[in-house]
Amino acid sequence: MSLYDIPLKTLTGEAVSLADYRDRAVLVVNVASKCGLTPQYAGLERLQKEYGERGFTVLGVPCNQFAGQEPGSADEIQTFCSATYGVSFPLLEKTDVNGEGRHPLYTELTKVADAEGEAGDVQWNFEKFLVGKDGGVTRFRPRTEPEAAEVVSAIEAQLV
């Protein structure tokens, strides 16, 4: 199954898929509101503003699997993201990224190795997967800031 064929739902319950973003580079990030890495929302939003008009989208995927750091309802998550960080990028419904209930999107994404050659489970909140316009995936671990040189370089390479 292609990444583009996997059904997804927005935070408000609307059906979507990566096919809706096929002509864009998409940074898929599992996010959480009560994590030490939550301030990365600010960098993600800056990337969205900087590159959005050039064919780039951040896609936030709330996840409560890491120390219960995303306990909120869909409304609470949306309110927190917009009020605290001015998030304008799309958010998906709360999703499991590891384990038995892992979403099919993450079944595919976690097959991709990071810069050290390690694939497998998502390590923590704010792990990033850049899905290029060609469907190729580049993986960045949670502590890699959204605006780190390697992330920005990978995004810019997709925007030609």
UniProtKB/TrEMBL annotation:
An annotated Gene Ontology molecular function: peroxidase activity
Keyword set, alphabetical order: Oxidoreductase, Peroxidase
One Pfam short name: GSHPx
Stretches assigned to the Thioredoxin domain: 1-160
Source organism superkingdom: Bacteria
InterPro entries: Glutathione_peroxidase, GPX_AS, Thioredoxin-like_sf, Thioredoxin_domain
PANTHER family: GLUTATHIONE PEROXIDASE (PTHR11592), THIOREDOXIN_GLUTATHIONE PEROXIDASE BTUE (PTHR11592:SF40)
Similarity field: Belongs to the glutathione peroxidase family.
Name this protein carries in UniProt: Glutathione peroxidase
